[in-house]
Amino acid sequence: MRTQVGIVGAGPAGLLLSHLLHLQGVESVVLEARSRDYVEQRVRAGVLEQNTVDLLRQAGVGDRMDREGLVHHGIELRFGGRGHRIAMTELTGGRSITVYGQQEVVKDLIRARLDVGGQLEFEAGAVSLHGLDGDTPTIRYRHGAEDGELVCDVVAGCDGFHGVARGAVPDGVLTVYERQYPFAWLGILAEVAPSTEELIYCSHDRGFALHSMRSPKLTRLYLQVAPDEAIDGWPDERIWAELRTRFATDDGFTLADGPVVDKGITPMRSFVVEPMRHGRLFLAGDAAHIVPPTGAKGMNLAVNDVRVLAEALAAWYRSGSTELLDGYSATCLRRVWRSQHFSWWMTSMLHRFPDDDGFQRRLQLSQLAYTTTSEAAARSLAENYVGLAQV
Length: 391
Ligand code: FAD
Ligand code: DHB
Description:
Blueprint: E1 5-8, H1 12-23, E2 28-31, H2 36-41, E3 47-48, H3 50-58, H4 63-68, E4 70-72, E5 75-79, E6 82-86, H5 88-91, E7 97-99, H6 102-115, E8 119-121, E9 124-130, E10 138-143, E11 146-151, E12 154-157, E13 175-190, E14 200-204, E15 207-215, E16 218-225, H7 236-247, E17 260-274, E18 277-278, E19 281-283, E20 289-290, H8 298-319, H9 323-350, H10 358-373, H11 375-386
Parallel strand pairs: 1-2, 1-12, 2-8, 5-14, 12-19
Antiparallel strand pairs: 3-7, 4-7, 5-6, 9-10, 10-11, 13-16, 13-17, 14-15, 15-16, 17-20, 18-19
Helix pairs in contact: 1-6, 1-8, 8-9, 10-11
The structure holds flavin-adenine dinucleotide (FAD) and 3,4-dihydroxybenzoic acid.
């Protein structure tokens, strides 16, 4: 097979890149290791920044998001048994976030690609990348029992944190910046109406909890747990009891429960490789960087990377100029590091660390009190959370 841009991975990054390139008249093939059903059902992110919403709309894939997504103008920080609202829209000159599941974005993008005959190969896992230093890089992949080869002008490594693209870069080229956190998130999706209109980020002496949602009938909840926690140790009743304890308020907040339809544990890490390019290979999204989920930034960063990459590739095909491609890594990394800092800051402020003493806890509570009472501090959180227009 031959194409212009060979894309590894049909997550938000790979699919949106393929769609944006198509809008610019550039041809691509997407290779995805998993089945279509699997990628459409995988429950992950839920918060779209204003920039992401604007881009999906402009790209003509925002109709269902506009009908079914939930537009939010504030979030709650809860600590010491009380809720404190951060009025995001008021503090940011009218910007907001939209709660719309990542797998819904993925479904919309798959549909948009297939509607115009886009080539998506499911159950076709890339095995190795070759010739990244030359003009015709090649992706070797396995599709069922068959081995295949995709010859391209450029390879986009959009295959997530555990993919093969990053590993194809020769030793010594990439610098890795990394931080592990001594906890994980246990996430559930439950068939019950949300108990709140806006997201609640809750800091409790027993650990962090997050109340989110997917629709008026579906609630998404997360609990901070130990990093090595086994999901079997968390029957549904234990999860609900722990959530009720952490979300309890002095004025009697009640958490409605219901059937749990999805359950999983996610480790937490911060990770960046620099540069996000080697020769004709461009890394985008989780393949190049991971943020802890507390700031809701991972998918939004993936979307920003491929926005920059699609523009750069289109300019190169149009004019032969490599200027934007040469700036790709540095342009993306500015936003990546801003989001890394914000995600680390939110994570540090809201979670209990095993080594924390009373002093550290009081620092956290003081930071939370300041963030929710100072307009300057609240605005700083709000503008980062809805996504800075420029970085
Ligand atoms: P992925 O979604 O990981 O896609 C990579 C794709 O590549 C996958 O489909 C994979 O199957 C495929 N692949 C892997 N290896 C190969 C191979 N060898 N060959 C072919 N295909 C391959 N982000 C936010 O912005 N907001 C949030 O609210 C948020 N909440 C989150 C909550 C949780 C619990 C988790 C786990 C993540 C959350 N994130 C959030 C992060 C977000 O989900 C990721 O950042 C996002 O999925 C990155 O997209 P991607 O396309 O780069 O990678
Ligand atoms: C969700 C996930 C997040 O990481 C976050 O910060 C907010 C919401 C969610 O899945 O809804």
